[in-house]
Amino acid sequence: MDLAHRDASQSSGLSRKAYARELFRIGAITFSESEGLTWSSGLRVPFYCDNRLTNSFPRLRRQITDSFVQFLMTNGIMPETIVGTATAGISQAALVADRLALPMVYVRPERKHHGRGRQIEGGLPRGHDVVVVEDLIATGGSSLRVVEVIREHAESNVLALVAMFTYDFPGVAERFTDAGVPLFTISDFDMLVSVAEEDAFMSRDRIATLWDWYRDPNAWSRARAN
């Protein structure tokens, strides 16, 4: 283990509860019950978790980096390159790469139609062991597409994928297991709701709405479609 990795192993990360509480503290949780908010997929949801907002808070930003690095060190995961997902995973990927003194690249959702037509931006040597950094996991589809791009176009080995938050929908963890990608997330939906109730960040009615949505997101969304 080189000096950069030894120093990184001394970091102090966030607990599941601490990160969930921080999301409320910085105003990253937006609630809208009547019409709902809309994901890029078109699905309507009663709340939005904006992990990108953590970039504006230096101490929290550093603690997130600590959590990711701590996971890698604890599990003996030694990447040669850190990969960010465009766009939300780029900033934290850069911070993790800097902490570990490693190269960093990012993957676009699709290949550019101008310039050099790249989908992987930066220098990723073929066969490198990489760790992918994401902001959150919903269905896992977009994250696993990034894994496919790395494997197919760079012939690289994805050692793990790390993210700040997961909705932890049924079956999603199994998708990563089936793909052979260890998944680490700092916090999750269940803890977010628990903290909301414990610290009175939301009313009982709002918490009930969250659980109604979580049990059947598609039905909840259809009921609020225009």
Describe this structure in words.
By secondary structure, the protein is of the alpha/beta class. Helices cover 41% and strands 20% of the residues. The chain has a six-stranded mixed sheet with strand order 7-6-5-8-9-10, with helices on both faces. The model is unreliable at 1-11 (pLDDT under 50).
Q: Secondary-structure map with pairings?
A:
Layout: H1 3-8, H2 16-25, E1 29-31, E2 37-38, E3 44-45, E4 47-49, H3 58-74, E5 81-85, H4 90-100, E6 104-107, E7 120-121, E8 129-137, H5 141-154, E9 157-166, H6 172-178, E10 183-188, H7 189-198, H8 204-215, H9 217-222
Helix pairs in contact: 2-7, 3-4
End-to-end separation: 56 Å
Task: Write down how many β-strands occur, each being a DSSP E stretch of 2 or more residues.
Answer: 10
What share of the residues does DSSP label as strand, in percent?
A: 15-25%
- The biggest beta sheet, please? 6 strands, mixed
Helix and strand composition category: alpha/beta
Output the number of helix runs.
9
Fraction of residues in H or I helices: 40-55%
- Shape, please? globular
Helix-strand sequence: HHEEEEHEHEEEHEHEHHH
Rounded average pLDDT = 91
Rg for CA atoms: 18 Å
Enumerate the strands of the largest sheet in spatial order, edge to edge or round the barrel.
7-6-5-8-9-10
Low-pLDDT regions: 1-11
